[in-house]
UniProtKB/TrEMBL annotation:
Organism encoding this protein: Didymosphaeria variabile
Pfam families per record: Methyltransf_2 (PF00891)
GO biological process: methylation
O-methyltransferase C-terminal domain ranges (all copies): 185-353
Protein name: O-methyltransferase C-terminal domain-containing protein
């Protein structure tokens, strides 16, 4: 029997399970993805992995490699879409003619974009599910492009393309430097942006970029927070007097998410002063009695003594081993007997293998 047959049966069985859940719970929309239990989420990720595996088996090696090689074209179209602010210029419902879209852009920006190249970029984006043409000569939002009208997701796209992509393109230079560096100011980001400062210090000198970066990271964390919620027994610690310190917690998105799903535990979000100031302003009023913000550099000794859990969510991936150890040593004087240090990171298995779309507890 072909390897496709077991995958096909797995796809059928899982699809049937998901369809039955959708029909009984959310027949009209996609909320089932967020509301399904842990078992359903595991099934969904398994299905995605199976579909990806089937695709790989149905492609020649040349076709699979081409998918990777042409990825820069996807990024280029996204970069133009972002820089021209197209998601905001196209109405959220209905459609707009290309002529009116060009006129709207040129009037608002004082620049000149021609209709023909704009059509080409949008046509390419449509092949990726971004925008749609309900009729010839008119463009409208697709489900994907409509998400980009959300300011947080739009800013996350901007940070990815304008802050991080230039650094990724200079990774070869960083790899071939005369010596291996573990310092945060000797990275591909430094080469790309022409600075001797660590990235976060550099952004502090550019307030608007720093604000955008903070908002974008908060949105990115929001997308991933349900994995954080599922990966630890928060309910076990949800009692009066329990304190969770979110070290390097940014705008407090994770703390707010966890506070919304618990009743008693208290959260203290720590980050640099300009970041926690923005976080305080964004925190919903109903959570202010249980979520506090304090300015703290996690390389300095931890000022909150005797907390029950010190959470480091998506922190260690940004630092070399030297600085990860420094972060941990700064926590030691604050730890009481029985305290936990909880890491939340994306990690690879000891043996790397093709995984497609898959995340699990570890």
């Amino acid at each position: 029997m072909s390897e496709l047959h077991p995958l096909a049966w797995s796809v059928y069985d899982i699809a049937d399970q998901i369809d039955r859940f959708k029909e009984s719970t959310y027949p009209e929309n996609q909320h089932w993805i967020k509301e399904g239990d842990e078992g359903l989420e595991k099934a969904r990720l398994t299905l995605l992995g199976d579909l990806e595996a089937m695709k790989r088996q149905l492609q020649s090696p040349e076709e699979a490699l081409s998918d990777i090689m042409y990825f820069p074209a996807d990024l280029a179209s996204l970069l133009i879409i972002h820089d021209l602010n197209l998601p905001q210029l196209i109405p959220p419902s209905g459609s707009i003619s290309y002529d009116d879209l060009v006129m709207s852009h040129n009037t608002q920006t004082g620049t000149c974009v021609e209709e023909d190249p704009l059509r080409r970029i949008i046509s390419y984006a449509i092949t990726k599910g971004i925008f749609r043409e309900p009729e010839r000569g008119r463009v409208a939002h697709s489900e994907l492009s409509l998400l980009l009208r959300d300011s947080g997701l739009f800013e996350l796209l901007g940070v990815s393309l304008q802050e991080l992509l230039p650094a990724l393109l200079r990774l070869p230079d960083a790899f071939t430097s005369p010596r291996e560096s573990i310092e945060p100011n000797e990275t591909a980001y430094n080469i790309a942006h022409g600075t001797d400062l660590p990235m976060y210090r550099f952004l502090q000198q550019h307030p608007e970029r720093a604000k955008r970066f903070g908002r974008a990271m908060s949105h990115g964390r929001h997308v991933d927070n349900h994995f954080l919620q599922q990966s630890f027994a928060w309910a076990k610690y949800d009692s009066p007097g329990m304190t969770i310190v979110d070290v390097g917690g940014g705008h407090g998105n994770a703390a707010a998410f966890l506070a919304s799903s618990t009743k008693h535990m208290r959260f203290i979000v720590q980050d640099l002063d300009h970041i926690v100031a923005a976080g305080k302003a964004m925190l919903p009023a109903e959570l202010r009695s249980r979520v506090d913000f304090t300015a703290h550099d996690f390389f300095d000794e931890q000022p909150v003594k005797g907390a029950d859990v010190y959470l480091l969510a998506r922190i260690m991936l940004n630092w070399s081993e030297k600085y990860c150890l420094k972060i941990l040593r700064a926590l030691v004087p604050a730890l009481k007997v029985g305290a936990k240090i909880l890491f939340y990171e994306h990690v690879f298995d000891a043996t790397a293998e093709y995984r497609g779309n898959h995340k699990e507890k570890w």
